[in-house]
Amino acid sequence: xxxxxxLGIQALVSMASLTPxxxxxxxxxxxxxxASLIGLFVGLVYIGSMLSSLGSGDLIGRFGAIRISQACxxxxxxxxxxxxVGVPAAIVLSALLIGxxxxxxxxxxxxxxxxxxxxxxxxxxxxxxQTGVPLGGMLAGALVPTMVLLAGWRxxxxxxxxxxxxxxxxxxxxxxxxxxxxxxxxxISLSGVLGPLRMVFAYKAxxxxxxxxxxxxxxxxxxxxxxxxxxxxxxxxxxxxxxLVLSVAQAAGIFGRLLWxxxxxxxxxSRILLGLLAVGMASCALLLAVYAHGWPFAWVLVLCxxxxxxxxxxxxxxxxxxxxxxxxxxxxxxxxxxxFITYSGVVAGPPLFAGIVSMTGEHASGFLAFGLIxxxxxxxxxxxxxxxxxxxxxxxxxxxxxx
Length: 403
What we know:
The chain has helices at 2-31, 38-54, 56-63, 65-83, 88-102, 105-116, 122-130, 132-170, 175-178, 195-202, 204-233, 239-266, 270-290, 297-311, 315-325, 331-360, 363-383, 391-402. By secondary structure, the chain is mostly helical. It is globular, with a radius of gyration of 21 Å.
């Protein structure tokens, strides 16, 4: 039940965040702004996610993970509803509200699953829950265009908002059981917002993985943002064929999240596996940039499937490892601090990639540069072992957090 609930919440929040890009062509034509401005909207969503993820630890401790998840669903619903006003100020606020709702969902679900999942199954369970992100994208892509045809773009936005509200209501019966560890007297302060970041940097193993996730998140979003344009402009593929390649990469990401979670539980330590996945995604990026021009379509499809399976499939293993390394009762806060760094890469990656493209005139240079950086990070993870935290080091880390 905790897994099903967190998976459903994750999928709907993801669907809410990806509904505006699907609505963009229809909405932009009516509002009178370029559809390309959706890139700024997505950036604002992730900025909101970065900020709200930092405060998630105290909020989860005070109100409970389910209550915070319900609040996130309501915030996403409010953001979608506000977007239907159709004026620039409302749209900016809409993006921030959706981001504020998106950010705490993963820390909240990690808090729940860390309490209810056996240690030897955490990799697979966290990875299965994280399939809610691409699942939400698939739902947005499959359902929202039809709803636009039936009810217009405003009706489609309000329909997705209603889905979020319904999910918030459906989770209420299990709230008491899953939020039984909340502390109604826990203090919430602005100074406490930086606590999750202090916690991340106090534990070296967590800090290392969080910094690596900055580049993994950047690579993931650059793949999903620029692949279709790259394949159409520099490979000469038709738009439908390029869209098919992206869909296959996304589907491979879902499969990869499940596969790598199972592998982390049974075969390969999470840190080493994340390093191998980094080497894999970097190799795919380098092949796509340097060698894949002129390949048959089938081989390009296979390469991009492998790219998606690694660059989109790493999240569950990463979050499960953060949960394992977090002090008892601090999974939500630790995850929130780590995700602040991850989302920073998501925000910074596409503009950096676009800057490389503008300087060189080709997308291949962007994939080449990002591939080389991620390759070095992956080799570092594979070739170096995480240091075990002894009791004295753990006490020192706690003192740094309290300071």
